[in-house]
Amino acid sequence: MRQRMLMSLAVGVLAFVSVLMAQREQGIVRDEVHYMNFGSRYAEWWADYFTGDNDASSKETITKFFGGAGPTDNNREHPPLMKTMFGMSERLLSRKLEWASSVTAYRLPTALMFGLLVLLVALFTSGVWGMAEGVIAGLLLLFMPRLFFHAGLATFDVPLVTMWFATLYGYYKALYSRWWVIGFGVMFGLALATKHNAIIMPAVFVVHYAWVSVRSQRLIQGPGVAGFFGALFRGMRHCRPSILIGIVVIAPLVFMAVWPWMWFEPWDHFKDWLSFHLTHVHYNFEYLGNNWNAPPFPWHIAIVTTLVTVPVATLLASVCGAIVLVARAYRGQAADAELSPALLLFLSAGAAMGPFLLTSTPIFGAEKHWAAAMPTIAVFAAVGLVAVVGMAVDRLRLAGVVRESRDRAVRIAATVLVGVLVVLASVAETRASQPYGLSHYNALAGGAPGGADLGMNRQFWGYSARGVLPWLSRHAPAEGQPPSHVYSHDASPVWGWYQRMNLLPKTMPDSGHEQAGISRSKFAIVVHEKHFNRHDYLIWSAYRTVQPAFVLTDDGVPIVTVYARDPKLHGPSAP
Question: Pseudo-torsion of CA 221, 224, 230, 233, nearest 10°?
């Protein structure tokens, strides 16, 4: 156990450090602005609450910080756990201790959550299938390009994956120990306080618990429908029925404890929260050459997007792992068969991706919405890789190529070699994808150019505009001269942040929105998404040219275009 913990901890620390270093080059996404601002407000409230401010716990004050009449007042449409952590981290590490920049301090909790996720995946996998599988699973999860990108943002998507998997881990351990029921309930409560997707999780537990219950009693109760239900009810009495306490008692208490807005009128506020997401607005999203902004959506979006964004070697190994696990279960050879860990992971991935097969669920955020399926892919890949290597060594031994006395050494060496090659393939993709991770597509798609040719979404959130700031800065007017206003397009919410970070001179302020902003500007940028094409036309008309001054590309694919009103800056020879 100690060795497994140390190895898992090492992989988790590597994940945390890698993301924290990489995020320094990533642009700020629109949503981060809201989460960082409200996170600071939430942290301020908690500071007042714990320092004895009697007014902090009043309904009026809590509403002022956490709620309001409107569905998006004080960002009450999202639970506060991560926003509070963002605010507390910035308050301590940036303002008080001055150990990190403001943006890095806000983002640190997400990086920490990612490290915890990798640690838990490695620990769980090594405990069920073996040390090699655990380390490989953790590394393959770490080096998933899209997930790695999201791990560097002050958003909720990676933290939700962490709490989702931590809840699975707690549930699995609770099948062994009654004390883990408490940990399971706490994890589920924190998952609910992270993002609304967690509300799906009980479906995983119900199906898995029913399976485990029946499996434990099936031989005793006999065949047939009556035998099935007899096994189910008898098994539920014997297989930790206290697990239900974790779901219906502990989790709601934890959820309410960390969300002050739920301290009064909890049922009404809970309904408001869920209804917002059940009737969520449909934003624009490009998929296979079409722009989608209203259902019905293609049912296969989640499947195809996953197939063209996860590294190919990981996908192939995961398919092998799924086949191996099914074969073992069929033969009764599955590791820890009674508690069916492979089934638990399969159900988890199904629950994460399932809503997006319904053709009505908003899909504007692509893989981040079903990112909770990624641990399953990583674990299955690790199991498949080790199993395939083992089968290959068995064949070589039977053929007389490998001596039986050297079987173990050859098996270890081959596992390490193949594992390193597969992990390095993922490392190469992840490194190449930075800092424009949402433009990444794997070799199956043909890389970023292939993704563009397929008509897949190139990006969203406006974060890639950071890449044109050095060019704009070179053409900024000097202090004291009239400013050169910039039509900052989808980066407008973060423009002031870039100026405070000294990435852009204050002599290049944002010009405003739409036609009025373009008319006022001397420079204009367009972040390439299919539904943003009209902005090019507006700029061409106002600037009297279709010639860009600068184009930011990712592997040759245009992702941000800069236009200049000054004709001297047009064309490839422009400075």
Answer: 120
Residue 146 contacts residue 437 (beta carbons within 8 Å): yes
Q: Which residues pair with 196 in a beta bridge?
A: none
Burial of 483 (0-12, 13-18, 19+ CB in 10 A): middle
How far, in Å, CA of 365 to CA of 521, rounded?
A: 30
Question: What are the beta bridge partners of residue 558?
Answer: 553
Q: Under DSSP, is residue 255 helix (H, G, I), strand (E, B) or coil?
A: helix
Q: Are 340 and 211 in contact (CB under 8 A)?
A: yes
Contact 491, 322 (CB under 8 A): no
pLDDT score, position 176: 81
3-state secondary structure of 388: helix
3-state secondary structure 305-341: HHHCCCCHHHHHHHHHHHHHHHHHHHHCCCCCHHHCH
Q: List all residues 6 or more positions away from 374 whose beta carbon is below 8 Å from its beta carbon.
A: 141, 144, 147, 161, 310
95-104, 387-396, 496-505, 542-551: the lowest-pLDDT one: 387-396
pTM: 0.94
Q: What is the dihedral of CA 69, 70, 73, 77, to 10 degrees?
A: 110
**Could you report the per-residue pLDDT of 356-390, keeping only the tens digit for each?**
999 998 888 889 999 999 999 999 999 999 999 99
Cβ atoms of 487 and 518 within 8 Å: the answer is: yes
Q: Which residues contact 511 (CB under 8 A, 6 or more apart)?
A: 485, 486, 487, 488, 517, 518, 520, 521, 524
298 preceded by cis ω (within 30°)? no
Dihedral over alpha carbons 100, 102, 104, 106 (to 10 degrees): 120
**CB neighbourhood size of 460 (10 A):** 22
DSSP 470-482: HHHHHTPPPTTSP
194: its two tokens: 């992270």
Task: Report the run of H or E that residue 523 belongs to, with start and end.
Answer: strand 523-527
Q: Choose among 528, 531, 463, 515: nearest CA to 494.
A: 463
Token readout for 180 is 């883990």
How many CB atoms lie under 10 A from the CB of residue 259? 25
- Contact in structure between 437 and 149 (CB atoms under 8 Å): yes
Q: Which of 506, 464, 455 is nearest to 485 (CA)?
A: 506
Q: Is 210 in contact with 244 (CB distance < 8 Å)? A: no
DSSP tag of 190 = H
Is residue 11 within 8 A of residue 125, CB to CB? The reply is: no
Report domain extents, the chain: 2-380, 463-569
Q: Cβ(216)–Cβ(199) under 8 Å?
A: no
Q: What is the pLDDT of residue 281?
A: 83
Mean pLDDT, residues 569-573 taken together: 67
Collapsing DSSP to helix, strand or coil, 466 comes out as helix
